[in-house]
Amino acid sequence: MLKNRTRFGVVLFVISLTISVPMQSSVRPSANGQRETKSNQNLVREVRHQLLLLPYYSVFDNLVFKVDGDHVTLEGQVTRPTLKSDAEAAVKSIEGVSGVTNNIEVLPPSPMDDQLGHALYRAIYGDTGLSKYGWSSMPSIHIIVKNGRVSLEGVVDSEADKNLAGLRANGVPNVFEVKNNLVVNGKS
What we know:
single chain; alpha/beta; Histidine-containing Protein, Chain: A; five-stranded mixed β-sheet; four-stranded mixed β-sheet; 5 helices; 40% helix
């Protein structure tokens, strides 16, 4: 019985890692054809993997990257300056990466924004329709707060879930503005 529970837990963990893709990436196609594309796909997968392994990467950070050949451009917003430098170091250490441009914005420290972020987390992930997005090790809806302005980033399963997350965020007191940048899985 315990053995079956362990297998189920491992399968559930693997499924949650493959379903949740909290980072967006873009790859520019190369002129060299299929072999180059396969190489770029592996590079994208490895960059995503290394960024997800960063110890302080949380639901309140947003990391986005672009791969152009063997050059990686990092973008997004983070709450800790060390996360910006850790992301760059992790990507630079990947075999096949010739250069990294780090355009990650470090959000200004603000106790009010921190409180607002936690209230938004409770409003979004506390909703029964959206709680499934918090089941994986890295929740797929990221909440970025800067000076009372909120940006929702990440991937959801449906347009209804995207709209519901936006409604929940708009319902939190002291939010000045909500930009719902959530992407519906399968649409770009």
